[in-house]
Amino acid sequence: MNRLFPYPLLIILLIITWLMLAGFSVGQFLLGTLTAIIATWGLAALHPAKPRLRRWDLLPRLFAIVFYDIVRSNIAVAGIILHGGRKVGKSGFMTIPLDLRDPMGLAILAIIITGTPGTAWIDYNSARNILILHVFDLVDETAWLNLIKNRYEYLLQEIFE
Amino acid sequence: MNHAADLPIWATLLIALFLLIGAGLTLVGSFGLYHLRSFYDRIHAPTLGTSWGTAGIAIASVIYFSVVESQLVLHQLLIGVFVMATTPVTLILLSRAALYRDRTENNRDVPPLHPLRNLPQASELEQDSMATHKNAGEEQK
Amino acid sequence: MSATILFWAVTTAQIALGIAMVLALARMISGPRAQDRVLGLDTLYNNSMLLMLVFGIRTGNSLYFEISLIIGALGFVATVALAKFLMRGEVIE
């Protein structure tokens, strides 16, 4: 089982992607399954660190929160840009000490922070676990700190650690 | 516009709404890229186009092709997923490169260098690492 | 009726994306630094990808989807390579 299907979730995702691109039929399903299994053998040969999901049930909540935040920050950033003459010195860097250590969780945190307009992941120091962010609308620094630590990092820690 | 005549009106309105949201946000993002002052401000602007700009146009495309071909066509959403997964990689690499270049030029506006990953006394002092970093920069010149 | 609405929505979206491409191109040309140009190029790629999707709606041809997929993939690789070059190529002279 483990030798033949090293990453069952990835195989399912690859088959879904294949069927979305090629259209559903029995032949395409078999071809997609074969490709997905061979591709995951190739991945297993690289010996990547295997991510452990501890709490499946929290994933939909994370997606909902991120979806809502992306919509909200799209409106906010578009508003700031459209208001034109934004004051100088309102954006700035922020240093945040993180507690999250899991590489998969950090990768997802990077996707969330960069994918959301208004915050950009600039640098991460893995020895000291410190993250440098650039925030577009840095009026209230504690609010942003609160957002990253309590809204995202807490959930990611619950899911991955 | 071959099949547009037989589209129901609700589908047309939805397609038009998502198209205009997507294209409008992309335009605002590119305007911000052109208009904003510093590089680190500008790096926020294109994410408008890659988040809801792409999502809006992909959703409009999904609705259009699903109604025209009268079956569920979802492959345009894959573009949104790919863009969502690849944008952070490019933007993080780019901003790290920009930070590195600014630090080697001793630009005061960017945060100072934190200790490098594998140095034994890495966690000592930030001041130290800044000093050695400056020396290294001078030697390179 | 619905054909008219769709025609104007698609035309407006195409004009907006065209202007967005011009703005990204202007940032790419004017710089001032190399990282600004790379960011402009990345935005240009993304905008042209979206323009191809809108062309797909205009013509009803799903071939444009594949074009935009290729543009997206090329844009990703190009930006990663250029960012890597900025990190390593120029500074170690």
UniProtKB/TrEMBL annotation, chain A:
Q: This protein's superkingdom?
A: Bacteria
Instruction: Answer whether the UniProt record assigns the keyword Signal to this protein.
Output: no
What one GO molecular function would you report for this record?
monoatomic cation transmembrane transporter activity
Q: Where in the cell is it found?
A: Cell membrane
Q: Which InterPro entries match?
A: Cation_antiport_E (IPR002758)
Q: How does it sit in the membrane?
A: Multi-pass membrane protein
The protein's predominant localisation is membrane
Query: Any keyword Transmembrane?
Result: yes
Keywords (alphabetical) are: Cell membrane, Membrane, Transmembrane, Transmembrane helix
Q: Which residues cross the membrane?
A: 7-23, 29-46, 58-84, 104-124
What Gene Ontology cellular-component terms does the record carry? plasma membrane
Provide the coiled-coil residue spans: none
Q: Which Pfam families match?
A: MNHE
Q: Which family does it belong to?
A: Belongs to the CPA3 antiporters (TC 2.A.63) subunit E family.
Q: What is this protein called?
A: Multisubunit potassium/proton antiporter, PhaE subunit
Q: Which organism is it from?
A: Nitrosomonas europaea (strain ATCC 19718 / CIP 103999 / KCTC 2705 / NBRC 14298)
From TrEMBL, chain B:
Q: Per its UniProt record, what PANTHER family does this chain match?
A: ANTIPORTER SUBUNIT MNHG2-RELATED (PTHR34703)
What protein name does the entry list?
Multisubunit potassium/proton antiporter, PhaG subunit
One GO molecular function term of this record is: sodium:proton antiporter activity
Annotated spans, Disordered: 106-141
Q: Which NCBIfam families match?
A: CPA3_mnhG_phaG (TIGR01300)
Where does the record place a coiled coil?
A: none
Q: Answer yes or no on keyword Transmembrane helix.
A: yes
- Membrane-spanning residues where? 12-36, 48-67, 73-94
Q: Pfam families under this entry? A: PhaG_MnhG_YufB
| Keyword Kinase among UniProt keywords | no
Report keywords, A-Z. Membrane, Transmembrane, Transmembrane helix
From TrEMBL, chain C:
The question of whether Ion transport is a record keyword is answered with yes
Gene Ontology CC: plasma membrane
| Pfam families per UniProt | MrpF_PhaF (PF04066)
Ranges annotated as spanning the membrane? 6-26, 38-57, 63-87
Instruction: Give compartment(s).
Output: Cell membrane
**Which family does this protein fall into?**
Belongs to the CPA3 antiporters (TC 2.A.63) subunit F family.
Query: What is this protein's record name?
Result: PH adaptation potassium efflux system protein F
Species of origin reads Nitrosomonas europaea (strain ATCC 19718 / CIP 103999 / KCTC 2705 / NBRC 14298)
